[in-house]
Amino acid sequence: MLHDTPLREFHQRYVQTRAEQASSPQEADRPGAAQGQAVKPADLEYLPYGPSDEPEQMCEVVATFGEVEAEYAAIRRGAGLMDCPQRGTLLVTGEDRTAFLNSMLTNELKDLNAGAARRAFWLNRQGRIDADVTVVETGDHVLIDVDIHQAQATLESLDKFIFTEDATIKNVSDDTHRISIHGPRVLEVIAHASGDEDFRLDHGCCAKIIIADHELIITRMDVTGDIGVELFVPVDQTAAVWQRLLETDESLGKPGERVRPIGWYAFNIARIEGGTPLFNIDFGPTNLPHETGVLGERVSFTKGCYLGQEIVARMESLGKPKQTLVGLRVSSDLLPIAGAQVFAKDESGEMGDQIGVVTSSTLSPMLGASPIAFAMIKTAHAELGNAVLVNAEGEQVAAGVHALRFLPEPKQGVEP
Predict the structure, then answer these.
(1) Which helix (H) or strand (E) holds 90?
(2) How far apart are CA 96 and CA 167, in angstroms?
(3) Is residue 213 domain-resident?
(4) What value, to the nearest 5°, has the Cα angle with vertex 11 and ends 7 and 16?
(5) What is the DSSP string of 104-117?
(6) What's the confidence (pLDDT) of residue 36?
(7) Within-domain flag for 355
(8) 250 near 260, Cβ under 8 Å?
(9) What is the mean pLDDT of residues 246-251?
(10) CATH number of the structural domain spanning residue 374
(11) I need a surface site. Which of 162, 230, 340, 375 has the fewest CB within 10 A?
């Protein structure tokens, strides 16, 4: 296995405790208590993450702790803790670290001061995306968040361009684990866990905090439509930090606004609703930045040269790529799955040529359980509101092209 979580034992212990609580006499006698089958430890489910043709390069992520609806509710009403062994970390040190990365990556980084984080692409000479990264400037060094499967390749390809610069890159994925937290009460959780009652953190910022007597780096990137943070945690401190975060559940009050572990299933629902496509899932190494739907937050068109810039600039001057990632709002209750074909719809409502494929999909609780999806389709058909047809559950159903974000935009000055 490429990268395993140090929290397996804690995940098993959590579902075991949940099962014991659900089957206890006190719980059974509680007025209104559910009378169904208790949660079992076997309900803890993992998913393989990585290239299916290379099992040794797989890692496993928690799919669910057995209660997907409750896990999703934590994201929307409280705070969901997610174990993220699928994320890799690069450490960049040296006085020229930011200047070097600015000359390599697609976004403007020369003004990236301590306490800031910014997303960018790492491209190859053909302008294709080799990695989707978040650059985190701590003041002492830079941390680069990257998919675990691109971590070593990103290090090696970037390292080839270091000549006289004072910059050193190291892959610290085996020493640094990742925990993410999503939901409207995330900042309260961090405040309670760290003992800093005044803790605040804006989107696109990072900070140093202390949890369970350990200093960590935290960065905020909202990906579900609610607040989201990422913790960079030394592997040998992960268990203590995870346990301390879980313990904040008792201090947040109402049972319906819980801090609880969440798996991929709940996170996937929320990130699609929130309009966040993922590298290696919705776009990948064969794509150009203009095709991803997230060009605006990854690419600067006013900065200096970087690898692949010629291709990006040429595409910008041409106006449109051949294909682009869009949202789809399905008109029926049938759910298309990843890989489902998308077709043009002519004026008579009949099927036209295939124009793309679905990359991700879910039933959206925030939209009355309506099916929604991301799809990579030909740009000529990508105008918002355009009618298309998509294969779903053995049938062909109507859908409308939608923005990637399905949730309403937060009001100005209001937390998402």
Answers:
(1) strand 87-93
(2) 6
(3) no
(4) 145
(5) HSSS--TT--TTEE
(6) 44
(7) yes
(8) no
(9) 88
(10) 2.40.30.110
(11) 162
Query: E strands along 183-339, which residues?
Result: 206-211, 214-220, 228-234, 259-262, 323-330
For residue 247, is it left (φ>0), alpha (ψ between -120 and 50) or beta?
alpha
Q: What is the CA radius of gyration of the chain?
A: 22
- Residue 359 belongs to a domain: yes
Per-residue model confidence (pLDDT) at position 53: 73
How many domains does one find in the chain? 1
The mean pLDDT value for 41-67 works out to 86
How many angstroms separate the Cα of 9 from the Cα of each of 5, 41, 64, 175, 228? 9, 12, 15, 18, 25
pLDDT tens-digit map of 169-183: 999 999 999 999 999
Of 223, 329, 230, the residue nearest 275 (C-alpha):
223
Work out the angle at residue 88's Cα, subtended by the Cα atoms of residues 226 and 80, and round it to the nearest 5 degrees: 30
Provide the residue range defining the domain that includes 342: 322-407
Beta-carbon contacts of 82 under 8 Å, excluding residues fewer than 6 positions away, are 62, 179, 180, 181, 182, 261, 262, 263, 267
Q: Is pLDDT above 70 for 70?
A: yes
DSSP class of 150: T
The answer to the question of residue 365 being in a domain is: yes
Structure tokens at 318: 């041409």
